[in-house]
């Protein structure tokens, strides 16, 4: 009998990616946020494919005695215990470029929505209120965008918002190489003092958790808006709530939350917050690219064949 390797898909992947898995593997599905189901299913898996919702920690890795490969169909690896996986001899592959354009476009959408107060204006209109003076916005042209983390997504956001006439400043002490034309690197404090819109594009790790807290929010202009399309927890949510309620800053747009799914939070009740349910990577193009990238890598790891010959 020909026994096919088992690929466990624990978060929703694009149909294109699932088709790319082909027939040389047995594909199983589980809900990676259902812990008992995940622990049971991973026991027989040779490869595990996830997005951001499934937490792949030591408990999962210890339950996965056959596992050789973890594919993270996206950028952030904060939901995977990479050091422990490496210790266990499990390869971890992500798709670092697959969704960066989508995440950047989402960030720009949130910046524009915040400047023109689109969410509260649309909500009021749906409730039968035609309130034009209440929703006077601000122009972005001539204002300053502060990018914290000038990596792939931060750079794409900077390029796009420069086309709206924004001056771009950035903070990134780890950046190697030069800075894109027209972008000025500043200390975090200088950036916070100067920016009209602050946008966060950092990985979540021990250094960045809580990086934007009470003191950093206090350093921002009272007219400024904070945008986070990176990870919840990089911005201290309690401190942010207090800053928004007291008028220390003017607004926030949040695609990510400390605990997800986040359906109850005092932040969701504020009129000056534009919240979205972690949609930065949720485009068909990004999901196809991210899914196919990790499927190709999984097949290569399982069969030791060149990826090009595996995916149609
Ligand atoms: N909302 C979404 O759906 C979505 C989609 C994609 C990525 N993301 C998140 O966005 C993050 C950034 O993605 P990326 O592709 O731009 O990553 P990247 O690695 O290309 O860029 C991150 C940048 O942050 C910088 N950095 C690291 N620590 C820093 C610090 N303490 N202060 C300032 N800068 C620091 C790095 O030098 C790097 O330039 C990912 O880690 C992921 O968590 C979210
Ligand atoms: O598709 C997802 O689950 C979100 C992924 C995104 O946050 C990322 O880090 O790539």
UniProtKB/TrEMBL annotation:
<keyword id="KW-0520">NAD</keyword>
<keyword id="KW-0028">Amino-acid biosynthesis</keyword>
<dbReference type="GO" id="GO:0051287">
    <property type="term" value="F:NAD binding"/>
</dbReference>
<dbReference type="InterPro" id="IPR050857">
    <property type="entry name" value="D-2-hydroxyacid_DH"/>
</dbReference>
<feature type="domain" description="D-isomer specific 2-hydroxyacid dehydrogenase catalytic">
    <location>
        <begin position="7"/>
        <end position="311"/>
    </location>
</feature>
<dbReference type="Pfam" id="PF02826">
    <property type="entry name" value="2-Hacid_dh_C"/>
</dbReference>
<feature type="domain" description="D-isomer specific 2-hydroxyacid dehydrogenase NAD-binding">
    <location>
        <begin position="109"/>
        <end position="280"/>
    </location>
</feature>
<comment type="function">
    <text>Catalyzes the reversible oxidation of 3-phospho-D-glycerate to 3-phosphonooxypyruvate, the first step of the phosphorylated L-serine biosynthesis pathway. Also catalyzes the reversible oxidation of 2-hydroxyglutarate to 2-oxoglutarate.</text>
</comment>
<keyword id="KW-0560">Oxidoreductase</keyword>
<dbReference type="GO" id="GO:0016616">
    <property type="term" value="F:oxidoreductase activity, acting on the CH-OH group of donors, NAD or NADP as acceptor"/>
</dbReference>
<dbReference type="InterPro" id="IPR029752">
    <property type="entry name" value="D-isomer_DH_CS1"/>
</dbReference>
<dbReference type="InterPro" id="IPR006139">
    <property type="entry name" value="D-isomer_2_OHA_DH_cat_dom"/>
</dbReference>
<dbReference type="InterPro" id="IPR006140">
    <property type="entry name" value="D-isomer_DH_NAD-bd"/>
</dbReference>
<comment type="similarity">
    <text>Belongs to the D-isomer specific 2-hydroxyacid dehydrogenase family.</text>
</comment>
<protein>
    <recommendedName>
        <fullName>2-oxoglutarate reductase</fullName>
        <ecNumber>1.1.1.399</ecNumber>
    </recommendedName>
</protein>
<dbReference type="InterPro" id="IPR029753">
    <property type="entry name" value="D-isomer_DH_CS"/>
</dbReference>
<dbReference type="Pfam" id="PF00389">
    <property type="entry name" value="2-Hacid_dh"/>
</dbReference>
<dbReference type="InterPro" id="IPR036291">
    <property type="entry name" value="NAD(P)-bd_dom_sf"/>
</dbReference>
<dbReference type="GO" id="GO:0008652">
    <property type="term" value="P:amino acid biosynthetic process"/>
</dbReference>
């Amino acid at each position: 009998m020909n026994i096919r390797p088992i690929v466990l898909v624990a978060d929703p992947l694009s149909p294109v990616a699932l088709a790319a898995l082909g027939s040389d593997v047995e594909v199983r599905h589980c809900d990676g946020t259902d812990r008992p189901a995940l622990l049971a299913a991973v026991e027989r898996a040779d490869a595990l494919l996830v997005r951001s919702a499934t937490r792949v920690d030591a408990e999962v890795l210890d339950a996965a005695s056959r596992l050789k490969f973890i594919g993270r169909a996206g950028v952030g690896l904060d939901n995977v215990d990479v050091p422990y996986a490496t210790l266990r001899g499990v390869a971890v592959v992500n798709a670092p470029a697959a969704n960066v354009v989508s995440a950047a476009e989402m960030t720009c959408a949130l910046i524009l929505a915040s400047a023109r107060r689109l969410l509260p204006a649309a909500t009021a209109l749906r409730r039968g209120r035609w309130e034009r003076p209440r929703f006077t916005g601000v122009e972005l042209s001539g204002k300053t965008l502060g990018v914290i983390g000038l990596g792939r997504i931060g750079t794409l956001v900077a390029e796009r918002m420069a086309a709206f006439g924004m001056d771009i400043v950035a903070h990134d002490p780890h950046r190697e190489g030069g800075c894109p034309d027209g972008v000025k690197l500043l200390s975090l404090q200088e950036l916070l003092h100067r920016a009209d819109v602050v946008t966060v594009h950092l990985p979540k790790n021990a250094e960045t958790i809580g990086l934007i807290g009470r003191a950093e929010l206090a350093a921002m202009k009272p007219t400024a808006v904070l945008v986070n399309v990176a990870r919840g927890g990089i911005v201290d949510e309690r401190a942010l709530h207090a800053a928004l309620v007291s008028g220390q800053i003017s607004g926030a747009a949040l695609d990510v939350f400390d605990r997800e799914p986040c359906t109850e939070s005092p932040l969701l009740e504020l009129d000056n917050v534009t919240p979205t349910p972690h949609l930065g990577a949720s485009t068909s193009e990004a999901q196809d690219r991210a899914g196919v990238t990790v499927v190709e890598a999984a097949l290569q790891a399982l069969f030791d064949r060149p990826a090009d010959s595996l995916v149609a």
